[in-house]
TrEMBL record:
Organism in which the protein naturally occurs: Leeuwenhoekiella aequorea
Database matches in InterPro entries: KR_dom, NAD(P)-bd_dom_sf, Sc_DH/Rdtase_CS, SDR_fam
Gene3D superfamilies: NAD(P)-binding Rossmann-like Domain
Gene Ontology MF annotations: oxidoreductase activity, acting on the CH-OH group of donors, NAD or NADP as acceptor
Annotated keywords: Oxidoreductase
Name this polypeptide is given: Ketoreductase domain-containing protein
Source domain of life: Bacteria
Protein's UniProt keywords contain Oxidoreductase: yes
PROSITE patterns referenced in this protein's UniProt entry, alphabetically: ADH_SHORT
Length: 246
């Protein structure tokens, strides 16, 4: 399936996987809507995409804000038309040991990684119902399949994203011809670990030093694959790890 002139919203487009995905999809001819909180980064990305001949719209938005989502949908409709694809990518990973009681960080992870994803789904489902087509890509993780120490809450959010993806697929696939894909990366070299504040976890992270991590582009390529399969083929899950990750 071609992405030419498809209208695609990418959350968390200001860095890492979201940024690489937006570039890749724009190069394939999609109109990309770049959302995140850091407007300066989004503007730089828009410039890069437009220099390469692509089309992009910047909308500063926090995925936890329903008002921001309303704005994202209104501006997308005005500039490009109906939403064809949502890449629900924004997320945080402040890993911590439960006994260190980083309760505010637990709340933030639930708000961004679960409620943020749901806000996105609620915002695009009306267009997909009306068009009887669409594709929702949710970024889960290997952490949505395997629980790790210091990851109780993060893993819970990523298990939730996988469960939501399958639940939404079951309803929206048969009735509204809408595809849902859960992307489940292992360790990817991005800014994600910058949100870790628990000193005990920072020590633990040294065990990943020998890994050859995935690059954000590897995940963008997986997303591109899922989005470009023929109409009748719905890629439900992609699990992708660095070759030397356990
Ligand atoms: P980055 O830290 O590079 O990107 C995270 C993105 O999320 C940023 O663009 C950030 O933008 C955005 N974001 C965070 N909070 C909010 C918010 N409240 N509202 C809107 N945007 C927000 O990390 P990655 O690219 O690695 O992460 C992308 C996704 O991939 C996440 O869901 C992560 O859990 C998942 N993942 C990552 C893995 C890895 O090893 N890196 C492995 C498996 C899954 P801004 O700060 O500008 O708002």
């Amino acid at each position: 399936m071609s992405l030419q002139n498809k209208n695609i919203i990418v959350t968390g487009a200001s860095s890492g996987i979201g940024e690489a995905t937006a570039k890749t999809l724009a190069k394939a001819g999609a109109n990309v809507v770049l959302t995140a909180r850091r407007t300066d980064r989004l503007k730089e990305l828009k410039d890069t995409i437009e220099k390469d001949g692509g089309k992009a719209l910047v909308i500063t938005a926090d995925v936890t804000s329903k008002d921001d989502w309303k704005d994202v949908i209104e501006q997308t409709h005005k500039t490009f038309g109906k939403v064809d694809v949502l890449v629900n990518n924004a997320g945080l990973m402040p890993l911590s040991f439960i006994e260190n009681l980083k309760v505010d960080e637990w709340d933030k992870m639930v708000d961004v990684n679960i409620k943020g994803v749901l806000n996105g789904v609620a915002s695009v489902v009306p267009d997909m119902k009306e068009q009887k087509s669409g594709h929702i890509i949710n970024i889960s993780s290997v952490a949505g399949r395997k629980i790790m120490p210091a990851g109780a809450v993060y893993c819970a959010t990523k298990y939730a994203v996988r469960a939501l993806s399958e639940g939404i697929r079951l309803e929206m696939g048969p009735k509204y011809n809408t595809k849902v894909t859960s992307i489940e990366p292992g360790f990817v070299s991005t800014e994600l670990t910058d949100t870790i504040t628990d000193e005990d976890v920072k020590d633990m992270m040294s065990q990943f030093e020998d890994l050859t991590p995935l690059q954000a582009q590897d995940i963008a390529d997986s997303i591109y694959y899922a989005l470009t399969q023929p109409e009748h083929s719905s890629v439900n899950e992609i699990l992708i790890r660095p070759t030397n990750q356990e």
